[in-house]
Write a structure and sequence with these properties.
This protein is of the alpha+beta class. The chain has helices spanning 3-28, 32-36, 54-65, 145-152; strands at residues 39-47, 50-53, 70-83, 86-98, 106-120, 123-139. The protein contains four helices and six strands, in the order ααββαββββα. Strand 3 (70-83) and strand 4 form a beta hairpin.
Length: 176
């Protein structure tokens, strides 16, 4: 493989992983536009109780997450095989959620996203996705009401664009 080919492969891998991260951030911040940007318009997502076009999936997923007070998607191991403008990826995930303000119980789910990505007009995005759930458990949460109140006193934690992560430019002032 030539040096320019190796560089292009690294760029492609970074673009594909960035796409997976955009999906997770979009879901956690309830930013439908950001989550949608991870998919091509004709994408199909087979995700637990829903299997169909991406826009229907997003309707289903945002409705499902509406029943949760907080949730986070984490991605870990990521393997991708690239052949021209098509790539196949397997990305392990952890999903954590609570359904009450008391943060009890904490539901923890592990599984994998198996994706076919396509590069169209220079843009990598998901063409097909299967979400595989491999395990799920509930555990006590250590985030007490007092601890949660302490953390939100210094920054905005929100499931929308008021979250501190959207502040541009981010400017932090020292506290006395």
């Amino acid at each position: 493989m030539t040096e320019p080919d190796r560089v292009q492969e690294l760029v492609d891998r970074a673009d594909i992983l960035d796409c997976v991260h955009r999906y997770c951030r979009g879901m956690d911040r309830w930013d439908r536009e950001l989550a949608r940007s991870a998919y091509h318009d004709d994408a199909v997502d087979d995700h637990l109780a829903y299997c169909g076009p991406v826009d229907g999936f997003l309707d289903w997923a945002f409705d499902h997450h509406a029943g949760q007070v907080r949730h986070q998607h984490y991605v870990t191991n990521h393997h991708v095989e690239i052949e021209g403008d098509v790539a196949h990826a397997e990305t392990y995930y952890l999903f954590l959620a609570t359904v009450t303000d008391e943060a009890e119980p904490l539901t923890v789910t592990g599984g994998r996203y198996v994706d076919r990505f396509e590069r169209r007009d220079g843009r990598w995005a998901i063409a097909d996705r299967v979400c595989l759930v491999e395990w799920m458990t509930e555990v006590p949460s250590l985030l007490t009401g007092a601890a949660r109140d302490f953390t939100v006193a210094f920054a905005t934690i929100a499931r929308d664009r008021t979250d501190t992560s959207y502040d541009r430019p981010l400017k932090v002032s020292p506290r006395p």
